[in-house]
Amino acid sequence: MDLHYLTPLFEPKSIVLFTGPQDEPEQQTPQARALLAHMATQPFKGLLTPLDIHTTGTLADLAQARADLAIIALPDNEIMPALELAGRIKVKAALVLASGIDQAKAHEMHRVAKQHGVWLLGPNSQGFQRPMLQLNASSAGALATQGQLALVSQSGALTASILDWARQNRVGFSSVIALGAHTQVGLAGVLDYLANDRHTQGIVVYMEGIANARRFTSALRAAAHAKPVVVLKAGRKQDGNTAAQTHSGAIVGSDEVFDTVLRRAGAVRVRSFVELFSAAKCLASRYRPVGKRLGIITNGGGPGVLAADYVNELGLQLGALSEESQRALAEQLPKASSLVDLIDLSEDATAEHYKAALEVAAKDRGLDGVLVIYSPKFGGDADAVAHELVQIKPKLAKPLVACWMGDSSVVPARHALADALIPSFRTPEAAVGAFGNIASFYQNQQLLQQTPPPLSHLATPDVEGARLLIESVLTERRKILTEMESKALLSAFHIPVTQTLLARNANEAMMIATQIGFPVALKIDSPDIPHKSDVGGVALNVMNATAVRDIWQSMMEAVREKKPEARINGVTVQAMARKKRGRELYIGVVTDDPFGPVITFGAGGTMIELMNDHAMELPPLNQFLARRLIERSRVHETLGEWRGASAVDMAVLEQALLRVSEMVCELPQLREMDINPIIVDEHGAIAVDARIVIGPAVQTSPGRAGRYGHLSILPYPQRYEQVWPLRGGGEYRMRPIHPDDAQMLQDMTKRLSPESRYFRFVSNMVELPPNMLSRFTLIDYDREMALCAAVQVEEEGEGGQKIEKERIIAVSRYITNPDQNSCEFSLVVDDAYAGQGLGTRMMLSIMDVARDKGLQEIIGLVLTQNNGMLKLMRSLGFEVKAYPEDPDFRLVTHPL
Q: What is the pTM of this model?
């Protein structure tokens, strides 16, 4: 019963067509003529019924057809009546093939569709293709070749271009979906569907914008966890937000934030149409590598060196054969060959030499992928070399990409490679770039697996005190915190700051400086001056009281001259940070529309804009994500032993980033922040200056916001962790599931009796397939929730010693239905723990979570013969009734 709500749209068994008068083609829209031509050329395998909006048949007769899908290709003024009629005859989904319909009309169509319970693709859609069903419900051209790649596009013109390219390059598709503007079924819903589509092994997306950041991020993460996803986004924005009031906001552009979102979601971004085609070739080959070391086999030094240069430029690694592999291969190659770095077979290389090199490279653990370059030579045989690649490909457990240089003489070889699903390119750079996309996919998958909680394992911050401080500033109708307020906020989250005191006149400044101890720093304190040094508002290394007095006066005069309208509170006095070889870094926060807050890191100090060094990550962070964020910055190279300075304390720097992540999670009003500089050395870190801007929280998901509605990725919900006693003695810990639980969930599934497995999955499978296992353990904690019960058990380890391990013994979960008001649950309990009250507790707890999320009803489908589950449902107050669509099930419902 695990059917997606879009199944009637993309897998219809019967269709009704609204295309206008069948005998008057001139009265039909271009979309209708194209659709009918496609249908005539390749008839749909299911039942097809043409309808007219002026039909004389009764609605009862029409409804008996029980059509899944209505396809509407009519003039604008006839679309609404057709949609009304489709709803009244109980179709489950509708496709509107049209163009130029404005937002107001589109919303009215959405209203009608929702009123009748119809899922609407369109208006302004060019439709979709499902080659496996021989269904071309589109105006985008001839039906694509059948394959395992899905294409989703928000541009009809690009859809047609990609299909044309695919035909020439022997690339097939499982689905082609052209969304168009103002469609009700959006990108997130389609990604959800394709993530669960067994005919799709990879997804290519062209997109221009999103409406719901949380929904998009959630769907993208789920899809990318199940299969490779490559995205090309239009509207790249290079300029930062010039209106931003901090350094962070000024140097971070929304396109870079989008990069960050894709990386954290586990997807791969390409930046050109050409790269998209390259990625499509690789996805069609179903490559999933485990690293970025690329071995290059070539018969020419020049092309090999070009490829090696591009490997370095993309941040990949040139893979070299081990000494053992070199010795084994050298005996089989021409004397002119070279195996140092490149596997250069020399110009005398034959197909046999390529075969020998491929066999050695396939076994060498130092290579994660292999690029084979062939340059046409006099007497060479391009077809024979291609044949060897085709022969070895099924045995190769790592990615294989090819570059057949030249033109007419190598065309048959390229066709042979394409037929064998070996990605082939005309230039070494394109081939290396394609492997780079594969490697990026693996690296981003590591980020996808991270599900940090909102608060780290560090000492608990004073969240309530921080909120009170923000509220007091907002009551004064201010948005910008002073330096002292900003540092107080940092201190509440245990980020070390320099001691800072405010002096309102020169005498106060001298007294404070004398108490703190020289040297000191003086800084103007004003909510209206974001960059103090620009107006002469910073003085460092002030050595005595007389200098303090003189600088205080001159600073006030300079600032009033340059910023006469600025409100000035006084001058802050703080001790100079005594870190002679410390690195000046910055940690910032910027709020993106629509993705919410983003944490930034890079080189700090007065040269921050000039250096333009900023790596980014979405909150929440854990130690793994904090470390990767640091490593992506250019300043990372200076954090180890550098020019005589000791390596900085990386653990302390990571902790500072974790603390900032906590601030972002717990303080939704935090809009922008600079900690610049934060000085780090081998002894620790200290924030020297800070500036914070607050304001209304940005909601990344319209509708139910919740506690973390300002975040694109929800934190791991620690608050649902509980400990409960077992009736037979002992206890179990109930907690939300996370990706690391995959193997334990699989083990529990294998321990279930065949009857229990069938009751839960309505299948005779012995274990969960990989895609289902990943879908069950990587969840977004927003649209769905899964609670597991875990106990500690003793198992025999290596050497016979007893080791204690965690074991999952029950799982309850719900998934929010498309109506956003109800959810569907499932429950499974380890047979060994049946009868101990686990089922009751797991159901009550998952119902509490659903209630906490604002859902109004929980429903489920239970097999009629599953008497134990039906008894449990009745004991919990569920209403049990017949399920009209399948007599083998009972529908159980409970209001929340």
A: 0.84
